Backbone:
């Protein structure tokens, strides 16, 4: 498992029923388990929250982020992937869109993992040098 940052969006996410308090993840920032929030004004804020704490805007800093930011989550209980792409221009959110190509990648990986786990022990392709 690699490092990532936590992200919360106070702006409703498009084309889904995810709650606005759901924790999302991104690998497009510092990947130090930091907490970021897209606030209601469309600014990306870096919070002072610790990794196990809920997001807290006290002392949050505006990052002035400029560029595209990919973030994702797996919805409960079915584990369906939701991936989004947000564009920030000079610190201001321009848009958030679903990223169906990224979601297809998530599904393909999950399918390969399920197939791998369903193989009988010792079957070729499992990494067993004796098989």
Residues:
């Amino acid at each position: 498992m690699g490092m990532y940052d936590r992200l919360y969006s106070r702006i409703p996410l498009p084309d889904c029923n995810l709650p606005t308090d759901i924790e999302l993840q991104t690998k497009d920032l510092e990947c130090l388990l930091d907490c970021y929030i897209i606030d209601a004004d469309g600014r990306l804020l870096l919070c002072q929250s610790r990794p196990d704490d809920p997001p807290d805007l006290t002392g949050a800093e505006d990052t002035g982020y400029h560029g595209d930011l990919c973030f994702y989550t797996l919805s409960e209980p079915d584990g369906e992937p939701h991936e989004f792409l947000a564009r920030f221009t000079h610190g201001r959110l321009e848009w958030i869109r679903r990223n169906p190509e990224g979601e297809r990648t998530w599904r393909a990986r999950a399918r390969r993992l399920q197939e791998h786990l369903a193989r009988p022990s010792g079957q070729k392709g499992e990494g067993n040098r004796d098989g």
